[in-house]
């Protein structure tokens, strides 16, 4: 362990089950999809609790604050549901962001399809305090390093997307071209007739564009040079083993090819699929999808925090979100 990581672990104070002090810890929650509308269900009939989901977030923030040792929180996107009446979108997004801001520390957000059903990305990104680092593109990918030995990479899976950009934007046109080539259905949100991983070519997903791919490569090269371990966060899952195929990033395979060129990425975390799942891929990278707050029946929860060590991560879940350990010494299958 680096000396600076050791100091952060000491400052963190709290020992885990193995009696070790994490270097740092952070809170996680996904798919709050709040809307002030009655309970309903997904397209395939899974119950959704649009008003209760913000209560899950309220309980998460209380729990994260009570923990006292969480360094930051990561929200995996879709804070407001597409069912939110459009004249209430801005108010609803502000209400959820305000709830996150009750956490006594930084909150890192990412955008999801439901965020973009409510507000265009150029309005959304400032509200979520996602900075573009002076770029003229309203991109939503970024990285940060909470301690010298670790780096977080937050991907923008709606970079190439038919939602969120102006309708004549090159990224919208590129997305519509992909959809017309890959999905023959008139309703481009429908995966009907598509087989296996091709089911991902639906309009509620998107892709990482070329510039972002080059940026990812540069960041991973830099992290490798700095001997940092990397945790990749994305609204859209990156491994078919951790999600239903209709929820995958369109070019998850290309992103994983870049990730697999390096040895620094240890864990990929995602939301969107709503049903929590875990997998380990052929290169030993762990993948974990976080259960949706939206689908918690009243009185139940799905949030947690992750303890970060030198050689593993440990997810401590509440209620529907199951504990998961991600050990970095797992065997690689090739
Ligand atoms: N077969 C389908 C599925 C969905 N739609 C419509 O697409 C929009 C987005 O769907 P939704 O399930 O709300 O998206 P989430 O981001 O919450 O979930 C993603 C994964 O599906 C979870 O597994 C919505 O308008 C649906 O009605 C559709 O037309 N046809």
UniProtKB/TrEMBL annotation:
One Pfam family from the UniProt entry?
Metallophos
Q: Name one GO molecular function term.
A: manganese ion binding
Keyword Nucleotide-binding (UniProt): no
Q: SUPFAM superfamilies annotated for this entry?
A: Metallo-dependent phosphatases
**Per its UniProt entry, what is the enzyme's top EC class, as one word?**
hydrolase
What keywords are assigned to this protein? Answer: Hydrolase, Metal-binding, Zinc
Coiled coil, from the record:
none
Q: Where are the transmembrane segments?
A: none
**Residues annotated as domain Calcineurin-like phosphoesterase:** 26-275
- Indicate the family of this protein: Belongs to the ADPRibase-Mn family.
PANTHER family membership: MANGANESE-DEPENDENT ADP-RIBOSE_CDP-ALCOHOL DIPHOSPHATASE, PTHR16509
Subunit organization: Monomer.
The name under which this protein is listed is: Manganese-dependent ADP-ribose/CDP-alcohol diphosphatase
Taxonomic lineage is: Eukaryota, Viridiplantae, Streptophyta, Embryophyta, Tracheophyta
